[in-house]
Amino acid sequence: MELLRDSIPMVFLAVSAAALYSRAVSSRLRPGIPRLAALLPVVAFLAAAPLVFTSAVVRGTAAFFLTWLGAFKVALMAAGRGPLDPNLPVLQFIFTAALPVKLRSHGDGRPGRVAGAAASKARSVFLVSCAAKIAVIAILLHLYKFAGQLHLYIRLALYGIHIYCFLDLLLPCIAAAGAALGMEMEPQFDRPYLASSLRDFWGRRWNLMVSAILRPSVYDPVRARAGKAAAAMATFVVSGLMHEVMVYYIALRPPTGEMAAFFLLHGACCVAEEMCARRWAARGWPPLRRPVATLLVVVFVAGTAFWLFFPPLCREGSEDMMLEEWAAVAAFFTGTGQKLLPYDLR
């Protein structure tokens, strides 16, 4: 199994070394062109590192961690912005640079630490959430055995649930590892299935680490020069382009533009939604009931994802390849469970 090969530890060691170099350089060079020039080799390395993996799932995950988030963090640090700070302790710096996390700061600007009572409650919620996500993924892996008999839209809906459960299981587990080391992380998801608008979905609930990176790197600079609507559109354009890059890492095929079109469409709809919301409120009309608004968001996101988001991930054998990899994951954990437990799981 790819997850057990030596490439992951070796890549992590190389990324840690690159992070230490970035920290040392940034400690000696002030933000600006000299620091950027010194950090460009790190950005190039982060773009190339995921290509060493043969597994599409591992390669895509590494590309998200390193090529997208990691490279953006380093580029922001070159300008003296973003979550990376050369004054952070070494372990916190490496953790933040290599993984999709953001340290939660208190009012004095110092990274937060987990409080006792709050940590105990959060730990209980985390364990229940993880158990639920693991159960859902186990059910999905079983259903994938019958993928050839399922309607296309049913399969795509299952893939959407799988992506959410996988990310909302993996990223909080990484944050929990940070918490075990005394670091408090900001949350990555906030129940996106309860979003009351597209702006609520993308800005406050879905994959908040990406939002935290795109805000200082794209949204804030564009908003300062061209206004809020242009900033929102620019942010979605960059997100769409980076998703095209992620598809390349997963499928190793040239981009088709469908991912970019998906995010461009959602960006335009977010801008139009805000304009309509302002006019709606100005006329004194009551807002839509929460269940109705949430249903509309879910239908729109799912419908446009079926149309533009999933096709690049499913064509030319990519769907079968990823199903085979997840089947191997299921077989690995089933085999491990059979060895650990005194009875047959089948």
Q: What labels describe this entry?
A:
13 helices, mainly alpha, 346 residues, 0% strand
Structure description:
The chain has 346 residues and is an all-alpha fold. The longest helix is centred in the middle third of the chain and has 29 residues, at 152-180. 72% of the residues lie in helices and 0% in strands. It has helices at residues 7-28, 33-48, 56-78, 90-98, 116-143, 152-180, 198-205, 208-226, 228-251, 258-282, 290-309, 311-314, 318-340.
Could you estimate the helical fraction of the residues in percent? over 70%
Radius of gyration: 21 Å
Assembly type of the shown chains? single chain
Largest sheet: none
Task: Briefly note the structural class of the backbone.
Answer: mainly alpha
- Unreliable stretches covering 5 or more consecutive residues: none
Instruction: Report the principal-axis shape.
Output: globular
Instruction: Quickly count the helices.
Output: 13
Distance between the termini: 21 Å
What's the overall average pLDDT, rounded? 87
Q: Tally of extended strands?
A: 0
Q: How much of the sequence is in beta strands?
A: under 5%
Could you spell the SSE succession in H and E letters?
Answer: HHHHHHHHHHHHH
Q: Quick summary of this structure?
A:
This protein is mostly helical. Helices cover 72% and strands 0% of the residues. The model has no long low-confidence stretch (mean pLDDT 87).
